[in-house]
Amino acid sequence: MKLESVSGLSQQALLIDVAAKVLVDNLASLLCNAASIQADLPARLRKCNRSYAATFVADLLPRLLLLIGDVCAAIHDAIAMMAANTQRHEPRPARPRPKHQAKPHPSQA
Questions:
Q1: Domain encompassing residue 50
Q2: Does a structural domain hold residue 57?
Q3: What's the pTM value of the predicted model, to 2 decimals?
Q4: Which tens digits make up the pLDDT trace of 41-82?
Q5: Is residue 49 part of a domain?
Q6: String of b and e for 10-20 (b: at least 16 CB within 10 Å)?
Q7: Structural domain tally of the chain?
């Protein structure tokens, strides 16, 4: 989740920080989905850049929550920026490990 540090020393501070990170990730996912639909991205060839979206939404969220400026225009601009910043998606075929080959390292259990 890329949560390097928390804002406090208590368990409650950790729970609040994790919940905030999950909220930002869910909002970024929803905006990426809207950007993919708006840009009419071919699902198998291109996808929204989720790292860029998470950073963008984290910077945008305070302005949206405090209703600073035109909120609808800010959301529309965010969707347009995410639609413009996509990455190529190359699905890899799944290849199971051969049965005769042992694991390269011992179990960590």
A1: 11-88
A2: yes
A3: 0.64
A4: 766 677 787 788 888 888 888 888 888 888 888 888 888 888
A5: yes
A6: eeeeeeebeee
A7: 1
